[in-house]
Amino acid sequence: MDIMDIMEVYCGPVPQIDNGFSIGSTNVTFRGQAMYQCYAGFAFPSGLPLERVSCLADGRWERLPTCLASQCPPLPDTPHANATILNGGGRSYGTIDRFECEPGFIRTGAPVILCMSNGTWSSAPPACRRACCPTFPTIKNGFIVDTTNEYLYGDEARVQCFKGYKLSGNNIIRCGPNQDFLNPPRCDDINECSSSQCDVACTECVNTPGGFHCKCRKGFVSLECRPVGDLGLTTGGIPDDSISVSGTEPGYPKEMVRLNSLGGWCGVNAESGANWVLLDLKAPTVVCGFRTQSVSRLDGNVAFTSAVRIQFSDDLTDVFKDYTNPDDTLVEFRILEPTLSVLNLPVPMEAQYLRFRIQDYVNAPCLRIEVMGCTRLECADINECAVDNGGCDQKCIN
């Protein structure tokens, strides 16, 4: 037997590899194995964390494994985003990408992502969604038609002016890139007197913000007008900012004081006369009556005003007058049932500001109301001779 037949085959020291290293071996003779691992940022084409090579019978090591630079998968498209490479390039390990959304869009997710050593991105690319305009512009003497919608970048909302005002500017406003509405219009007062709606022979037209009234000239008087109709609580002709209340129970806001509203307004005071609703009619207006409804409460009870008094004025700085009979006795309107009640004034009155005071109620001081009346356009002549001959010593001629 030749001595070479009994000699152990030796493959030599474990060889080194590029971008990786040996983590040990079983031995360096025939059938021995060496184990390899790649440096961070590199990987074997097989995707395995470890590779093994064997010592062959002819004294050579098997083909050594190769460590290749890690590659992250291609990034998906990110609509409305601009990507900037801060470091590296392509999809190789160490590449850093920064994402910025276009104007009018808000980022959701990390602004910067990194291609990591394991060949994955540190996170998914961010998403860019349309920015929201969270607040509406204040339209003095006007309003946004639908404030229940969510308005995103590029969406349009419509503006409308209150009765007695006209639009100055575009009635369409657009949600802009900075999360606010662009170029809101104004609502300017209409000078109704420029169209001579009043009878100039017996009245003088007086323009007021949001309205007008025909003031009787000296020697003329009248509280009659036609046709009598609703003054605008039901239709919105009387805007929310023309309604004031003494206080509000949570869940029953003043905006719901309008007749036929889905809820209703309720005050918070238990005392008689302490709960009230004040209306600004924008100009002295002839009032002939009002209608009321009950309010269905959240606890299942039905509440309604059972007694109400009216106070009025043409100037908020003046003391309000009580509505009285011709003999100066206070008029208290009584409501007996929680149904639609129609209450007519014994004598029409004229005022710009009306205050309805709740004197009594059932279950809670709650109210839904509409006021009826009209705008007087003409006045009747006063016959001064009808009383005491007009104070004349001779025949009085009117």
TrEMBL record:
Q: Which PROSITE patterns does its entry note? A: ASX_HYDROXYL, EGF_2, EGF_3, EGF_CA, FA58C_3, SUSHI
Family matches, as Pfam families: EGF_CA, F5_F8_type_C, Sushi
Domain (F5/8 type C): give its ranges: 225-374
Does the entry feature the keyword Disulfide bond, yes or no? yes
Q: The EGF-like domain covers which part of the protein?
A: 189-226
Superkingdom of the source species? Eukaryota
Coiled-coil features, chain-numbered ranges? none
Domain named Sushi: which ranges? 9-69, 70-130, 131-189
* GO MF annotation list: calcium ion binding
Q: List keywords of the entry alphabetically.
A: Disulfide bond, EGF-like domain, Repeat, Signal, Sushi
Disulfide pattern: 72-115, 101-128, 216-225
Matching entries from CDD domains are given as:
CCP (cd00033), EGF_CA (cd00054)
- What's the protein here called? Sushi, von Willebrand factor type A, EGF and pentraxin domain-containing protein 1-like
Q: Which organism is it from?
A: Frankliniella occidentalis (Western flower thrips)
